[in-house]
Amino acid sequence: MKIKICIVPVFYMIMPGPADIAGHVSSLGDFTILNVSQVCADEGFPTDVKTQKEVVRPRVKKFRKGDKFVIVLIPEKNVFDQRNQYKHITNYLSKKLDLDVQAEIRPSYGDICRAFLRGEADAGFFGGFSYIMTRNKVAIEPVARPVWLDNSSTYSGYIFVRRDSGIRTVEDMEGKSIALVHRATTAGYIFPRAYFKRHGISDMENYFSKIYFAGSHDTSAWAVYTGEADIGSCKNRIFNALAREDQDFRNQMVVLAESQEMPSNGLAVSRYLDPALKSRIKNLLLNLDKNREGRLVLKNFGAVRFI
Q1: Among 3, 102, 106, 238, which has the highest number of CB atoms less than 10 A from its own CB?
Q2: What is the pLDDT of residue 75?
Q3: How many whole angstroms separate alpha carbon 190 and alpha carbon 179?
Q4: Cα separation of 114 and 120, whole Å?
């Protein structure tokens, strides 16, 4: 039986909405399940500086024709598949902006934060929790987020096992190994922490024989499928895509719990970009579905529009 859990107002997930910025509260119970400062340290966030203003003197960043514009991404799935997905957006923006727009995958959110601090990144796709952690150090603002082919702009977290594992309850999981994604993900870390806390497990490190940080959502799912881990957690969209593509994966895996829905990763840009460029990027994304070329870009990206 799959359990759906609403994950206490502990943090706000600020994400772009149809108008400007919409707030989303993720309920995590009547307790704080994690030390945010520790999460930042574990993810390599630069805790030795306070804000971007203390690292560099803020000034408007302007671009000339052909200049490189970098959008940073965190690994969510196979790196080659992810690059192929985002190239449709970057190629379109390159053409329309007369810039060399590139998507660069960084190994952690800490690396993404440092890329902004060093002036190596101009924009990035963020989830709610990672956006908050990055915004504490870097001046960024949300622009738009995709609406996927199923007409939703949200995702949820899954906790799953192999069907033949014999694991169906939290009690069955004691002494087993679990694959998480990394500490800066809602679906791959915060949701399972909240889920197990709600079921009386406050010390996951001692409850499980091993906690394995996979680094990406699809790697977490594959770790369970291949037997490297007994239990896993990841985004439902990544899990469901694997299930569609691989019949044996679909037959062998079972979802035991699902979080509430949360806003999909959205594009945020540096606040120090030329305001005219920020406006053009936003308008290009929001109007992709209004023309034939844009609709083809969206189809190849796997979305129907941006909001």
Answers
A1: 238
A2: 78
A3: 13
A4: 8
69 pLDDT exceeds 50?
yes
Q: CA-to-CA distance for 240 and 238, rounded, in angstroms?
A: 6
Helices within 54-142 (DSSP H only): 79-97, 109-117, 128-135
CA distance 137 to 170: 37
Q: Token pair of 187, please?
A: 């679906």
Tell me the β-bridge partners of 232.
160, 179
Q: Are 275 and 295 within 8 A, CB to CB?
A: no
Q: Quote the distance between the C-alpha of residue 124 and its chain's center.
A: 11
Asked if residue 284 lies in contact with residue 71, where contact means CB atoms within 8 angstroms, the answer is no
Most confident of the following: 54-68, 100-114, 255-269: 255-269
Q: What is the reported pLDDT for 76?
A: 80
Take residue 190 and report the two structure tokens written for it: 């915060």
The CA distance from 89 to 96, in Å, is 11
**CATH class of the domain defined by 36-151+265-306:** alpha beta
By mean pLDDT, which of 38-52, 131-145, 161-175, 204-218 is the weakest? Answer: 38-52
| Residue in the block written with tokens 């079972």 | 254
Sign of the alpha-carbon torsion through 151, 154, 156, 162: positive
Distance between alpha carbon 3 and the CA centroid of its chain, in Å?
A: 23
Q: Which two tokens stand for residue 147?
A: 């609406």
d(CA 42, CA 184): 9
Place of tokens 């956006």: 131
Distances (CA, A) of 260 to 28, 160, 285: 11, 15, 27
Contact 172, 98 (CB under 8 A): no
**Topology adopted by domain 153-262:** D-Maltodextrin-Binding Protein; domain 2 (3.40.190)
* DSSP code string of 85-107: HHHHHHHHHHHHHTSEEEEEE-S
